[in-house]
Amino acid sequence: MLLVEAGHAVEVRQDLLPATLARDGVVLIQGASVAEVRALLDRWTVPVEHPHQVAEGLTVIAPRHRAGDGDNEAGFTELPLLPHTDRSLHAQPPSVLATLMLAPARAGGSATLVDGSRVLTLVRHRAEDATIAELRLRAAAGRSGPPLVEFTPGHARIRYRDDRVAGPYSADGRTDLVAEFRRLTVDTTRSLHLGSGDGYLVHNHRFMHGRTAFTGDRSIVRFLARVNSDHPYAWLNRGFSIASS
User: Fold this and answer.
1) 66-79 burial, b if ≥16 CB within 10 A, otherwise e?
2) Please, which pLDDT band fits residue 210 given cuts at 50, 70 and 90?
3) Cβ neighbours for 162, distance < 8 A, ≥ 6 positions apart
4) How far is CA 198 from the centre of its chain?
5) Which residues of 195-234 are buried (b: 16+ CB within 10 A; e: fewer)?
6) Could you give the CA distance from residue 25 to residue 115 in angstroms, rounded to a whole number?
């Protein structure tokens, strides 16, 4: 297994993974097995459960539903997934997410990544933090959800999705800011081709991820986790450093 800085051909030592994730928000995985990724995460995180998991914190994502089956199960179809943070409507979303490709699609199925700190930086050019804090997620049924950006001293945490389950809105009517957040998310999306044994590890409070539509039997494993409370980088559970935005 090889860990690599995104955008650079620089290997990341396993003991420096938390520090690299804190700095960059993403680390690429190459030539790995499920057991290797699980062992890597177990050194400094604890699994976070998911309703569709097949083992603690581990979910196999492959087409098993027809398009439109299940409001919250688009991941198990061949449909595209817009960039999102995982478990965005839950009280304590996982702070760490890793994926590992088991079988690539016959066509399509590229991974997509968006650096939320970059999006937030650009949004802050247009609005104060107090205004940005009024951006929220609203469930399809109309129920108001959590803030899109949660500010704490020195940190920010992004919760984002924009689909049939929930989408962004402004509690104080700044529809222009909602449109800007959406536009920036699209404009800063980058695509990533993953072969068998490849994947990525992201700071789920900072990076949004998704995929393009595909055909074939694409299958990936997703790991959800939270940093151990006694780890030096446990602050990643609160979000990313505002200085990085």
Assistant:
1) eeeeeeeebbbbbb
2) very high
3) 82, 84, 168, 182, 185
4) 16
5) eebbbbbbbbbbbbbbbeebeeebebbbbbbbbbeeeebb
6) 8
Q: Per DSSP, what are the bridge partners of residue 38?
A: none
- The pair of structure tokens assigned to 88 is 């965005």
**Contacts of residue 198, Cβ cutoff 8 Å, sequence gap at least 6:** 28, 29, 30, 31, 32, 100, 101
Q: For residue 76, what are its two tokens?
A: 């198990």
What is the Cα–Cα distance from 159 to 212, expressed in whole angstroms? 20
Query: What does the pLDDT look like over 85-110, one tens digit per residue?
Result: 999 999 999 999 999 999 999 999 99
The two three-digit tokens of residue 46, written as one number: 């604890």
Counting every residue, how long is the chain?
Answer: 245
pLDDT in tens, 4-24: 999 888 999 999 999 999 999
Is the pLDDT confidence value at 69 over 70? no
Question: Which tokens hold the place of 17?
Answer: 């993974």
By CB neighbour count within 10 A (0-12 exposed, 13-18 middle, 19+ buried), where does 138 fall? middle
Q: How many CB atoms lie within 10 A of CB 129?
A: 13
